[in-house]
Write a structure and sequence with these properties.
0% strand, 167 residues, mainly alpha, single chain, 8 helices
Length: 167
């Protein structure tokens, strides 16, 4: 299945929320998130010929985005002077009175403590992907996805409790 450039751009625009979520899960800093976002789009374009249409475009997009994020994150961690000082994202640290904003900030903070597979699992679970779709995207069995997902949810709850915040 071959998409035209316009069809590709339309599909990316339709599912760009996936890219924002993946970028936010792997980086705190807005600039790093934007860099990763751009890198994912580049990799999607380069990999477009591998999209056969056997799965939904969004599932394929997840797979490419997660793989790109993992590789990109590893590269960024190896760079000297990267992440030695906490870069503060002014939007993320504003004082909000809104309970949902506090819950979301707490959730993202907790997700950052998960490993790369756990992050990938939880992102896709939140987006409502089935166990089979998650398994296909990550190259795991459905049983393994269920076990890992349950453990990840418990781990997230523990992290959030340790932060002193409960939903």
């Amino acid at each position: 299945m071959q998409l035209t450039e316009q069809e590709f751009l339309t599909a990316i625009n339709t599912h760009k929320g996936i890219l924002y979520k993946v970028s936010r899960m792997y980086f705190d800093n807005t600039e790093d998130q934007q860099d990763l976002f751009q890198e994912i789009i580049l990799q999607l374009w380069k990999s477009l010929r591998t999209f056969k249409g056997n799965s939904a475009f969004s599932s394929w997009m997840y797979r490419v985005a997660l793989n790109t994020a993992i590789v990109y994150f590893k590269k960024e961690k190896r760079k000297p002077d990267n992440y030695n000082s906490k870069k503060i994202d002014p939007i993320a640290h504003e004082d909000y009175n809104n309970e949902k904003d506090q819950q979301l900030a707490s959730f993202y903070k907790a997700v950052k403590e998960l490993n790369k597979i756990e992050k990938a699992l939880i992102i896709q679970f939140i987006d409502g992907l089935s166990g089979k779709e998650i398994a296909d995207n990550l190259g795991l069995s459905e049983v393994n996805v269920r076990v890992k997902l349950n453990r990840t949810k418990s781990k997230l709850q523990d992290i959030i409790k340790n932060q002193g915040y409960e939903f």
